[in-house]
Design brief:
binds 1-deoxynojirimycin, Oligo-1,6-glucosidase, domain 2, 2 domains, TIM Barrel, alpha/beta
Amino acid sequence: MDNDVLSPAEPRAAARDTAPDHAWWRSAVIYQVYVRSFADGDGDGTGDLAGVRARLPYLAQLGVDALWFNPWYPSPMADGGYDVADYRGIHPMFGTLEEAEALISEALALGIRTIVDIVPNHVSDRHPWFQAALAAGPGSPERERFWFHPGGGEHGELAPTDWVSSFQGSTWTRTVDPDGTPGDWYLHLFTPEQPDLNWNHPDVRAEHEDVLRFWFDRGVAGVRIDSAALPVKDEALPMLPEEPAPGQHPHVDRDEIHDIYRAWRAIADSYDEPRVLVGEVWLEDAARFARYLRPDEMHTAFNFDFMTQPWDAAAMRRSIARTLAEHAPVGAPATWVLSNHDITRPVTRYGREDTGFAFDRKRFGTPTDLALGTRRARAAALLTAALPGCLYLYQGDELGLPEAELPRDVIEDPMHFRSGGVDPGRDGCRVPLPWSDHGASLGFGGDDAAEPWLPQPAAFAPLAVERQAADASSMLALYRAALRLRREDDGLRDGVLAWLDAPGDVIAFRRGASFASVTNLGGAPVALPAHTEVLLASAPLAGGMLPPDSTAWLTVEPAGEESA
Ligand code: NOJ
C-alpha cells in the first residue's frame, strides 16, 4: 500500500478540507475496537476482522475519525492478546493479514484511519525468541534479549529482586534447565507468560523498528504503545528503593526510555503522511508524563488522570485544568478517555458510591445504581467531547453498556486469578456487543452462531444497536449527535477553552467564540448562562434549568478569546 492512499479520499464532513490533514490526530475521535468482542463474522463465538469490516458503515455513521485495534496478532491469549507471539501476523481466530489490509483500506475509504497496538515491554512465552532462549540455556546469547538472572540464596531459590508485578505477585519465574534441575529466573512485569524484553539489546530495538515499518507500510496511521513507561530497566536489578527519585525507579519511567521513542518518531515522520505515536503512559507526575510528549517523541498519550476522578465537579475541573496546563509547554494536545478494555464501564462506575477508578478497588457484588450511572455517563460523554484535544471512545460505551458481573468460571483475565479471585478482573468490560435485541448472541454473530466467548447479560438486549438507532433519546443517538456537532463546530474543534463563572458544582466553559458546555454535578437544577440556542443536552431541561447530572451544549454570544 503506498503512502498516498493514507489520507481519506472522501472526508465525510463537507466542511472538511480535502487536502491531507497531517494534524488530524490533534482533535480526532478515536474508537477503540476490542476485536474479540466487536462483531463475529464467521459465527464461531469470537469477534473477528470480517465482523469489523461488515460493521464499518456503523462506525462511519457514528462519526469517528480513527479506529484503535487492541492486539490482533497470533497469541496464546494469556493476557487477552497482550502476549504477542508474532508481531507481523493476525491471530487465526480473527482472520488473515490480507483481511487486515482490506480492512485498513476499506475504513480509509470511509474516512476512518487505523491505529494498531504495539507491545514493546514483553512478548509471549511462545514467541520464537523466548523459546530459543529457554532451549539455549544459561549464559547463551539468546537469553540476552530477555532478563534471565540467577536467584539469590544458597541454591538460587530466591527471586533476584523484590519487584511486584502489575498483576500482583512476584515479577520473576524460575526456569528448569534441560537436565531437569532448577535454573535461572526470568523477569516478567505482568504474567509469567509475558517475559520482559531487554531493551539494551540491539536486536530488540531493531526488531521493533522493523515491526513499526511493517504496519506503517500497510497503511496504518499510527500505533498505540502498550505500557510505554516500562520497557527500560535498571541493568543492576536493584531492590525497590523506598522513594525513588524521578527517573530512578528500577523499571518505571527511566530516563533512557526517551531514546526509544525519539527513534520511533523519526520513523513515523519519514512517511509522506507522518504516522502517529500514542502512548499508554500511567504516571502520576504530570511533568514526567509531559516528557513523553516533547515534539520529537510521542504525539499524544492517554490521559488517565481525568478518568480516575470521582464524580465531583471540583476534582474534575482541577483535573481538566491540570491536564491542559501540563500539555501546553510541550505543544501536545490532551486526550480524554472515559474507559477502555482495562477499566470498569462508566455507567457502572458512576452509579457506585466510589465513583473514581483504581485497579485495586474492584470487587464482586458492588452495589450499583445503573440509572444514575447512565445519566452521569451521558453527561460525561458531552463534557469530554467538548474538551480540547483528542477523544477516545471504547466500544460499547456509545451504547451505555454496563460492566457485566460474570460468573467466576467464565473469567479468563489473569488479573482475576492473580488476585486470588478477589478482583473480578477486566472481562466485565470485554463482553461481546449487542447488535440486535433478540437471538442467541444478540446479533453479535448470525442466527446460527456459536455462543459468544463471554456471556452477555440480559441487560444488554434493550441496549442493542438496532434498538438505540431507532430511539432519538438513546445513548447512541446522543453520541452520534455530539460527534456530528464536534465535527461541524469550529469552536469545538480548535477553539481555546475559557472557564465560565459557575457555582461550585458546575463545570462550565466556552470553546472558541460562541460554543459553551455546562455540566451540573450537583443535586439541584441550575440556571444556564445566557445563550441563543441549546445545541444538545444529555437530559431534558426542566423549565430551562439544567437538571442534576447532566450537560448542555449551548451557542452563546461571541466573546473575546481568553485563554485557559
Ligand atoms: C496495558 C494493557 O492495556 C493491558 O490490557 C495489558 O494487560 C497490559 N498493558 C500488559 O500488556
